[in-house]
User: What shape does this take?
Amino acid sequence: MRRLDCVVIVSWLRQRRQRRLRARPFPKEWFTLIQRHVVFFRRLPASDRAELLGHVQVFLAEKRFEGCGGFAITDEVRVTIAAQACLLLLHRKTDYFPGLLTILVYPLSYMVEAKRQIGEHLWEEGTVSRLGETGRRMGSLVLSWGAIKHGAADPSDGKNVVLHEFAHQLDFENDAADGVPRLATREQQLAWAAVMRSEFASLRAADESGIPTLLDTYGATDAAEFFAVSVEAFFEQPRALLARHPKLYTQLQNYFQQDPVEFSAELL
Assistant: This one.
């Protein structure tokens, strides 16, 4: 059997398994946990809630969870992460973050050794506190349970570590960490590039001049972080994003095939 034929068969078998997982009755205990802890879920249309629960079944069957720093992984941890991550998958054909194998969870923030550029040719090394991180070649994603719970409980403060880190996973699907997720056509790629380039430049200028912004200025770090903070704003503060950055909102709306204004808890 040729290698291409094997790949096709494996892909077909995986898709069939995923369809079966989505069709299973959703465990009542998991449903109770999502309703209790993931606030945005209650505001979704019924069809979106049903789709999201199906995605959660696949996600939890395919991803491995590990506790760090003595943290114990429970169903509450798993479904609270999965429900938030799977919001990014609604209305689109998905392969469920294919580069991600393992999710590592710390109880609170955790410390890492990192370098930070403080000048054109000057770097500073030291220990920094983080709430989450992932990388294109890591195969894993790291999260803080404290930040996970906060994001699930407050869906309109513009901060959600799960959305942020899983946005990076979508970015990686085109085999680069460049702020460009997998887009279907050349026309979509050109439109995306034009808007994102302009919006990124505006955020960097605002960050340098100290002008207040809707988007987290951490997004001025690079194109990958700009995409991640834009995704946070799109789902958490969609009305404000639409009003202040309509072209950016439109690009995200076209990609995600969603209009979060319809279920936003945001107050203006």
Remarks:
- The beta strands are 64-67, 102-106, 110-119, 122-130, 132-134, 140-144.
- The first strand starts at residue 64 and ends at 67.
